[in-house]
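Ticket #4471: complex job returned nothing on first submit. Input attached below:
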Amino acid sequence: MKLPPNVSQADFTAALQAFAKVVGNEWLFTSDEDLELYRDSYSVVWDEAEERTASAAVAPDNADQVVELVKIANQYRIPIYPISTGKNLGYGGAAPATAGSVVLDLKRMNRIVEIDEKHAYVVVEPGVSYFDLYNYIQEKGLKLWIDCPSPGWGSLIGNALDGGVGVTQASYRGHFDASCGIEAVMPNGRMLRTGMGAMPTAKTWQQFRPGYGPRIDGLFKQSNYGVVTKMGFWLMPAPESYTTGVITVPKYHDLIPLIDVMGRLEQSKIVQGLWMLSSPTTGVRGDAAHGGEAPKIDPAVQVILNDPNGADMNKLDAAAQTAGVPFWACELHMYGPKKLIEAQWECIRDAMGVIPGAQFKLNEVRSLPLPAADVAKMFDTGPLGIPSLRTFSLGPMVSYEGEDVVGHIFFSPVIPRTGEAAIEAMDLFSAMARKYKLPYPPMQFPSAIFERAFLFAVGLPVTRSATVNAKIRDIIRELVVTATERGWGEYRTAPAFYDLIMDTYSYNDHALRDVLESIKDAVDPNGIMSPGRYAIRSKNERKPKA
Amino acid sequence: MKLPPNVSQADFTAALQAFAKVVGNEWLFTSDEDLELYRDSYSVVWDEAEERTASAAVAPDNADQVVELVKIANQYRIPIYPISTGKNLGYGGAAPATAGSVVLDLKRMNRIVEIDEKHAYVVVEPGVSYFDLYNYIQEKGLKLWIDCPSPGWGSLIGNALDGGVGVTQASYRGHFDASCGIEAVMPNGRMLRTGMGAMPTAKTWQQFRPGYGPRIDGLFKQSNYGVVTKMGFWLMPAPESYTTGVITVPKYHDLIPLIDVMGRLEQSKIVQGLWMLSSPTTGVRGDAAHGGEAPKIDPAVQVILNDPNGADMNKLDAAAQTAGVPFWACELHMYGPKKLIEAQWECIRDAMGVIPGAQFKLNEVRSLPLPAADVAKMFDTGPLGIPSLRTFSLGPMVSYEGEDVVGHIFFSPVIPRTGEAAIEAMDLFSAMARKYKLPYPPMQFPSAIFERAFLFAVGLPVTRSATVNAKIRDIIRELVVTATERGWGEYRTAPAFYDLIMDTYSYNDHALRDVLESIKDAVDPNGIMSPGRYAIRSKNERKPKA
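Support reply: We reran it on our side without changes. The output follows.
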């Protein structure tokens, strides 16, 4: 049996017995077979010494049991690692940040505690998945939408705490930002409620975010300061109708004004739905989850794309013009009453008029809900607030360096929201792909578009070969250095890179990390809660400063 | 000379000398005359033992000087109290939370550090007022708006940190929520940057809020964890055109569906501008800053309103119908391209169709900017992003209990966003007004309308009479008790009530406050930063627990 670090066999056995007394023997997991499920199947250090595996797992049924478990962990100094549904794929999955931790698996806590149609919010426990909530809303016939990432089997709370984003209206897409009100068990076993929920009689816990005094909700994001046992989320009222519209612009450098105009429209809330880039000329789609037939590419374009030194964009531009194919297309999802969608589309056309040759196609505005048969035909139902697992059917990477690709690990920098920065990022990722023969399309587009920033999430292939995985780790290290030089910081990463990335946030000799660690010492003096998560360590785990 | 608590005359003198060495003698203030300016002129404990006055004030020119001053404060254990422009009127003004503190007056730090039209953000120092920023934008001819509270002489940073709200588009109205990126000097004199700004090369500090790891920005709101020296704010792109629209509904209880429909429209982002209630029947306007002629009230209505037991709403309803005057009017500010405003208005009309007798008037949609002469005629220019001081010309309360009213102190509960709760609150405030003969109109309307909550900010009269002020304090205590019973928590208060209100946020034996105080101990072990602010105290200031 694996032991947590610095814990004796006797103490560990005693702790496990105490855990079992709280949850029942059937909810304590110690066998290799059971613990296999808590490994990160996309681990880039699979089966290596650095892989962080659990020593046990325990699954409480409710928050009171969480309190008891945390107290026991303190008593025996057992590191515990809470997960919701453990689907943080590409960023660490269910595996703990410190090897030998006991995973606190919250999957049984899957109650939808409250849902309010009028105020459009829900309160959930960590085990509630997007599917669970979607199905519940359908059963009850509530006029509410969810905003889910793709795939949709993850937990609302887990996704929000990991910094996840979705695909519907702008104000609901940032999942942590769309939350309101947290209940958490602190590392000392004490339960608290944030915001208005700190008033025992509170009527506006999920309705007013700021609360009174400091706002501590942000401390629970990508951290190790407590176990979130309940969280409120604002939901989008189900819109009346839906459509997509496509804007095309002819030339490569038209990307710059296209992004500028879209930015202003989004800052003004005229554009509120998700939009994704694609390049009809090169056949590359930013919307990787779109599926459908592979696009036909002009043979002259294909020759340019095949250039081993990278495609010459001037040549591509000329070839696109000859072929009469626009270089860029921007597909936008739109929601609301039909007359509003049509007016928004007119405003978008007017604003895009600054780009010569821009063309516009508004698809049919359809009343919602769509017939089930039509939904079934769609590849990606996320923009309609319907969770799916279809993204797994894509599997574009089959092998790398002769090894089967089993998953991906993300390199996820945030870059300025300009065409210039997007082009710089695309050039960089293309060059890296050529240099390391990565099985990528010739261009990488932003994965998430925020009002004032782009997020690229570049999935690097993970195999079961230690040699190939070591190479991938080197590539990620190189990417992090390059990105940092450019001022692009990563927003999220897997445990293998927590420290590497935190080290880049070094302003004033790591002043931010030092404050985060002083807070850690204050709330978790024994360092039992997810030690090392996002590179935050309590006093007894930190190395002395040089 | 007044001394800070537990500081010797010798240490205080030495500290003041050290302060002066940093900022120059002319920026250290110790005379009674100078310190008078730091009193809270709206204090409800004016000239009483409980009034919290400063022992000195010091005004640094830049963040490096703040670092030096904070280090000196630590050395001599001097409590310091940072203010931006000190205009937090009705909530404490410039006066410190603990008597004898040295006010750290940041008014000289009034640089607009960076403004970016494309990404629509600004980085300011604490001394930058809404007027400063507005004037700067006009001079540079930038297509950006500010969102300012009324009056507009306050600081962007101060207002955001105090939890202030403005009056333009929904996503810019919550000033803390509209911020992105903080630079702060921590109580140990160390400077940090939050979010992406923790990367020294960062290109997206003001562009991406979540950052990497825990998000600590919220810790700087209504707190005492550091001195904010720079802060980024997202700005609204200047809209093309503007208008207002008015919806009227005939009956008292039509308020319930009116609020429900508006709520759904706001959650759906179809309504994005501010709206304010008024009651044409009773002549009461929620928009206190509107000015203009006093409305004419039907004589039969006036008789009912004069009932010493409070107006009978059924009778009022009947009288309104006889007089042919709608009970409620909802005035909405709207922005954007003309065709979008018109489409939004049609959507609003369609949605309000569920209320029999609802009527609609869309005023002329005017291109922006309006001619200066037209702006000059407007009473309240805030919804056009133009700061003013005109709210001071209203002065509706001239005397109370025979004493001159010199200002107001706010009681500011957050209540559920329903017509039922609004009616309950109005009834409560009317009853309190009658009971204590407060010089109020017969109804109080929400002061700020959020997507999922209402904020009432009820201004109680402040005089220079200790007797009358004591009565006002009793009324506030009574209101707090009553509100807490109903589950309504206050979002902000003046120093005299920091503890009273914090005590209402008592879930699980004050677990939230205990965490806030453990963070305080971690970041400010000497308790030198704004001790007592929002009832947060370091170990050496706290009373031992019972």
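Chain B touches chain A through 109 residues (CB under 8 Å). Closing as resolved unless it happens again.
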